[in-house]
Design a protein that fits this description.
There is one protein chain. Helices cover 22% and strands 26% of the residues. It starts with a strand and ends with a helix. The protein has a four-stranded mixed β-sheet with strand order 2-6-5-4. It is built from four helices and seven strands, in the order βαβαββαβββα.
Length: 152
């Protein structure tokens, strides 16, 4: 399966999960590495957009296309999530939930509904899982961010 990640060009080849480890995110606490990816380029851009201030958008952005093994995906259904999982900012309950999955995951990836569009899915890649060595960057494409997205 192919998944997509929008980020700074200088980090486009990085599969270490270091950014999420440093900053934390909706599904991980700080100090827990992972990669946030989406099922489409459009969802990846939307997820990026809701998580960055317009002043912080770098000039050099890229979309990384990453291949992940289908056999390594654990599907998490919405009814399994904490009741406040869509709350902004992300509550500690979602960070606890995701960190627990990342630290005890038998699979290298978990599929989770997007908090922006719950009928679409994000894929959280466990950078420390043994099978993360099977993640492959297939392509990196420059992305010119259309500022109109943030002005709406």
């Amino acid at each position: 399966m192919l998944v997509y990640r929008v980020g700074k060009t200088k980090h486009a080849n990085d599969l270490s999960g270091e950014g999420a480890k440093i900053n934390g995110g909706r599904w991980n606490h700080k100090s827990v590495p992972c990669l946030y990816t989406s099922e489409s380029r459009a969802l990846s851009l939307l997820e990026y957009t809701v998580n960055v201030n317009v002043e912080e958008i770098p000039r050099a952005l890229s979309i990384s296309t990453i291949e992940i093994p289908d056999s390594e995906i654990l599907i998490i259904n919405e009814d399994s999530l904490p009741g406040n999982w869509k709350k902004v900012p992300a509550p500690s309950s979602t960070q606890d939930f995701g960190t627990h999955l990342l630290q005890g995951l038998k699979k290298a990836v978990f599929r989770i509904p997007s908090s922006v569009i719950s009928e679409e899915f994000n894929y959280i890649l466990n950078a420390l899982h043994f099978n993360s060595r099977n993640f492959r960057i297939k392509s990196i494409t420059d992305l010119v961010y259309d500022i109109r997205i943030k002005l709406v």
